[in-house]
Design brief:
It is a single chain. The protein has 3 domains: 7-129, no CATH class; 135-221, no CATH class; 237-410. 40% of the residues lie in helices and 18% in strands. The chain is built from 12 helices and 9 strands. Helix 6 (187-196) crosses helix 7 (211-220). The protein is globular. It has 411 residues and is an alpha/beta fold. It starts with 6 loop residues before the first strand and ends with a strand. The strands form 2 sheets. Strands 6-5-4-7-8 form a 5-stranded mixed beta sheet. The chain has a 4-stranded mixed beta sheet with strand order 1-3-2-9.
Length: 411
C-alpha cells in the first residue's frame, strides 16, 4: 500500500517512552477509572525528508501534546538506498541526543532560579499546517458563530419602539466586528473592506456602515456576546479534532498583560515614575492546539466558565495558588499547580507541571499578530478588543485543524 515507486515507509510510534514501562496490574479501584487504550494509526499523505523523521524520533525533545497524532506512517522521499536513509537518520538522532545532554549539563551548573523550567516544544508538522485566510472566508466563519451566539443570548441590541427604523442587521454587524482583529483593521479600514468585498450589512437591499456606526455597535453589543463567540469557536475546533483524532482534555490557565498607548503614574524601583499602562486578562487554553477556550478579567469569571468544561487536567502556575479557588476547581478537575501554601488533606497535584509552558505559545501567537497592544483607553473597549484578538487566534486554529484532518488519514 505504501510501497510506491520512489518512496519508503516508516512507522513512527510517538509514545515510545510510555511503551517501555511495564503494564500495571489492574485493581478493583482503577478498573473503572482507567481508560482503555486503543492504538490508532494514521498515514501522513505527503512525503517528507529524512531530516523530519529524525526530529520525530527524538521523543525527549517534544511531548505528545504538541503532536496531532501518536502513531503515524510517513513516506520518506526517494534515496539511492535504504542504508543511506537509515544512516542519515541515525546520525541526526545521535546529534540531537548529544545536544540535549550538553544542554542538561549546562543547566545543572546554573543557580536553580536561573534554570530553564521547560524544554523547547514545536510541532514538527507546523510548516504543513500554515493557512492563508481571506476576508470573505473569515467573515463566513464569523457569521456562523454570530448566528449561534444570538440564538443563545437573544438580540444584542434592542430597537426602541419609536424613532428611525434600523438599517443594518445586528447579526451581520457583529460578524463583521469579529473579524476586525484578524487583519488588524481599524474601524475605517473595516468599513472600506466591507465595501471592497461587497459584503452588505443591511436588513434589506445594500448598505455599508461607516466607521462611527461600527464603533457604536462595537460598544452597544454586550461583552458576554464576544466572550461566548470565543467559547463557541473553541468548541467547534475541539469537535473537529475529536471527530478525526483521539480525545485530549489537557487545559492550561494563565494571565497576561496587554500594553496600552498611554502612560500612568506608578512606583518603579522605589520611585514614582510614568510607565506604560497595562491591562490584565486571564485565558483558559486547550494545550493541544493552543486554542483559547475562554477569556476572563477576574477569577470569579473563570470559576463560572469552569462549569461548562466536562473535566480533565488543568495546569496553572503559582499565581492561581488560592485555596478557595483551587478547592472549587478540584471538584471537577485534576490539578497540576505550583502550590504556594500547605495543601489540605486529600489535595493531590499531578506530576506534569512542566507542561504549563505550552500555555505560553498562545501569548507568543498573540505577540506575533500584534494583539498584545491596544490603542483603546476605555476598559470596556479594551476588553472587547482582547476578545476579538482571541477570536482571531481561534479562527487560525480552526483552519489549521481542518487542514490537519486532511493530511492525516486514519487506517
Amino acid at each position: 500500500m505504501f510501497g510506491g515507486c520512489g518512496f519508503k515507509a516508516i512507522l513512527l510510534n510517538c509514545n515510545i517512552a510510555n511503551m517501555a514501562k511495564e503494564p500495571e496490574t489492574p485493581t478493583s479501584s482503577n478498573i473503572v477509572n482507567e481508560e482503555v487504550y486503543e492504538p490508532n494509526v494514521y498515514a501522513f499523505v505527503k512525503p517528507v525528508t529524512p531530516r523530519l523523521i529524525s526530529t520525530l524520533m527524538d521523543v525527549e525533545s517534544w511531548p505528545k501534546y504538541t503532536m496531532p497524532v501518536e502513531n503515524c506512517i510517513i513516506l520518506i522521499k526517494a534515496k539511492p538506498s535504504s542504508e543511506e536513509v537509515l544512516e542519515e537518520m541515525a546520525e541526526e538522532t545521535s546529534y540531537n541526543v548529544v545536544k540535549r545532554i550538553m544542554w542538561m549539563e549546562r543547566e545543572s551548573k546554573k543557580p536553580e532560579k536561573k534554570r530553564s523550567w521547560g524544554i523547547k516544544t514545536r510541532n514538527p508538522f507546523r510548516h504543513y499546517l500554515k493557512v492563508n485566510i481571506g476576508f470573505k472566508q473569515a467573515y463566513e466563519v464569523a457569521l456562523c458563530v454570530a448566528i449561534a451566539v444570538v440564538k443563545l443570548l437573544g438580540p444584542p441590541c434592542r430597537q426602541a419602539g419609536a424613532g428611525r427604523p434600523p438599517i443594518y442587521d445586528v447579526v451581520k454587524v457583529f460578524a463583521a466586528l469579529l473579524v476586525k482583529r484578524l487583519f488588524n483593521l481599524s474601524f475605517e479600514k473595516l468599513s472600506r473592506m466591507l465595501k471592497e468585498y461587497g459584503i452588505s450589512l443591511a436588513l434589506s437591499g445594500e448598505a455599508y456602515p461607516c466607521a462611527s456606526t461600527l464603533y457604536n455597535y462595537y460598544l452597544k453589543i454586550n461583552l458576554c456576546y464576544y466572550q461566548l463567540a470565543v467559547l463557541l469557536l473553541y468548541l467547534k475546533v475541539f469537535a473537529k479534532y475529536v471527530a478525526h483524532f483521539r480525545l485530549d482534555c489537557h487545559m492550561g490557565l494563565d494571565s497576561c498583560y496587554v500594553r496600552l498607548d498611554h502612560y500612568v503614574e506608578a512606583f518603579y524601583k522605589g520611585c514614582e515614575r510614568l510607565v506604560k499602562a497595562r491591562f490584565k486578562f486571564y485565558t483558559w487554553c486547550w494545550l493541544k492546539w493552543n486554542v483559547v477556550a475562554f477569556i476572563a478579567f477576574s477569577k470569579e469569571e473563570l470559576l463560572e466558565f469552569s462549569r461548562l468544561i466536562p473535566g480533565g487536567l488543568l495546569l496553572a502556575d503559582g499565581e492561581f495558588s488560592d485555596r478557595k479557588f483551587l478547592m472549587a476547581l478540584s471538584k471537577r478537575f485534576r490539578l497540576a499547580v505550583n502550590v504556594r501554601f500547605k495543601p489540605w488533606i486529600g489535595f493531590k497535584v499531578e506530576d506534569c507541571y512542566w507542561l504549563r509552558k505550552l500555555v505560553e505559545r498562545v501569548f507568543g501567537c498573540f505577540e506575533r499578530r500584534r494583539c498584545l497592544y491596544s490603542m483603546f483607553r476605555l476598559p470596556c473597549s479594551i476588553k472587547r478588543d482582547l476578545c476579538l484578538a482571541c477570536f482571531a487566534h481561534n479562527v487560525v486554529c480552526l483552519l489549521s485543524v481542518i487542514k490537519c484532518c486532511k493530511l492525516f488519514v486514519r487506517l
